[in-house]
Amino acid sequence: MELFDVYPRFDITPVSARGCWITDQNGERFLDLYGGHAVISIGHSHPEFVKNLSEQLHRIAYYSNSVQIPLQEKLCAALGAASGLDTYQLFLCNSGAEANENALKLASFHTGKSKVIAFKNSFHGRTSAAVAATDNPSIISKLNAGHEVAFVPLNDLTALENALSEEDVCAVILEPIQGVGGLGMADNAFMESVAMLCKRYGAVFIADEVQSGFGRTGKFFAFQHSTATPGIISMAKGMGNGFPVGGILIHPDISAQSGMLGTTFGGNHLACVAALTVLDVLENEKLISKIPELERYFRMELSAVPYIRQIKGKGLMLGFEMEFEVADLRKKLLYEHRILTGSSKNKNLLRILPALNIGADELDLFFKALKTELQ
Ligand SMILES: Cc1ncc(COP(=O)(O)O)c(C=O)c1O
C-alpha cells in the first residue's frame, strides 16, 4: 500500500523533540519555529505533559460520551478560569475543522437560517461547511460548494452590513488574525461591529481561534484584544500541544438539545488531560504574559534585516513579508541553518509559530541565520 500523496513534505524525519527543538533520525537538531503549524504550545514533550498523559494512559485512555467523564467538567472549570469566559458552555471534538463545522451547524440550528458570511483569505478547515467558508476554490469540491457562503473583504463594514441586511445569515465566521491566509488582522473596532451587527441581524458571530487561541497572541483568545463578544469560539491546535483535541465555546444564549451535536472520540480522557495540562503549564509558567515582550524583541531585531517590506501578526503568531518569494529562503533556513519556519497563501510571507515558552536566545539563532542569508 502507498500513502495517498497529498502533502508537499520537507526531507526531514523527526524522531524525538523537546521544547523548541526537534532531533532527526541522524541525530541532527532543528530549531522548531513552526510548531507543527501552531500546535506546539507548551513545548514538545513538556515533562508535565508526558507525565500526565502517561499516568492517564495507565488508568483509562478512552470511553465514549455514553458515560460520565468528570475530566470534561474539570476542563470546563479550568478553561472558564483561564479565558474569563466561565459562563460559556463547552462542546469537545477532535480538530479545528470539526470545531468550525460544529460551530456553523449550531449557528444554523440556533437561527433556523443557512447562509454564512466569511472573509477574503479565510481558512477554516477541510470539512464540508468549514471548507465552503474557506476562500480557496482549489480545495472546495462540488459536494462542498452546495453551501451558501458570501465572502466579504476583511475590515469592510459596509460590505458586511450589506451581506447581512437580508436577515438570511446564520453565521459570520472570522479569524481575528488570519493564519493560512497570511496574517491579515481584523481591527478591534471591526470585530466589535461584527458582534453588534450579528446581534442586529440575528446571526451568530463565530470567532475561529483554532490557530490564534490558547494564548498565542498574548491574550487567551485573540478576539480579547477587543471588547467583542462572540456567540461561538472555535479552538484546537495549541489546546492539546500535539494531542488531537478541539472544541467550541458556546454563549449562554444558545441552548443545547439532546443529540444536537455529537462525536465518538471528542472529550476522551486523554484529550481532556492534554488540554488540562496545557492550561496548567500556561498558568504555572506565566507563558501568556511573557509573549508581548517576545513580540517586541522580534519586531526590534527584524527592523535591522534588509528586504523586509512589513512585519505582520501579533504575539507569537508572527511573520514578515519580503520583497521576494520566501520558498528558497525557507529551504536555506531549514537545510543550512536547521530552522523550521512556516509559510502562507502569500508567497512572500514567512511565518513563525513557535512554542510559547521559546526564549530570546533561541530567537537570536533565527535572526543570525536570516542576517547571514540576506546580507
Ligand atoms: C484558523 C484555522 N481554522 C481551522 C483550521 C483547521 O484545523 P484542522 O487542520 O485541525 O482541521 C486551521 C488549520 O490550519 C486554521 O488555521
TrEMBL record:
<dbReference type="Pfam" id="PF00202">
    <property type="entry name" value="Aminotran_3"/>
</dbReference>
<comment type="similarity">
    <text>Belongs to the class-III pyridoxal-phosphate-dependent aminotransferase family.</text>
</comment>
<dbReference type="InterPro" id="IPR015421">
    <property type="entry name" value="PyrdxlP-dep_Trfase_major"/>
</dbReference>
<dbReference type="InterPro" id="IPR015424">
    <property type="entry name" value="PyrdxlP-dep_Trfase"/>
</dbReference>
<dbReference type="InterPro" id="IPR015422">
    <property type="entry name" value="PyrdxlP-dep_Trfase_small"/>
</dbReference>
<dbReference type="GO" id="GO:0008483">
    <property type="term" value="F:transaminase activity"/>
</dbReference>
<dbReference type="InterPro" id="IPR005814">
    <property type="entry name" value="Aminotrans_3"/>
</dbReference>
<keyword id="KW-0663">Pyridoxal phosphate</keyword>
<keyword id="KW-0808">Transferase</keyword>
<keyword id="KW-0032">Aminotransferase</keyword>
<protein>
    <submittedName>
        <fullName>Aminotransferase class III-fold pyridoxal phosphate-dependent enzyme</fullName>
    </submittedName>
</protein>
<dbReference type="InterPro" id="IPR050103">
    <property type="entry name" value="Class-III_PLP-dep_AT"/>
</dbReference>
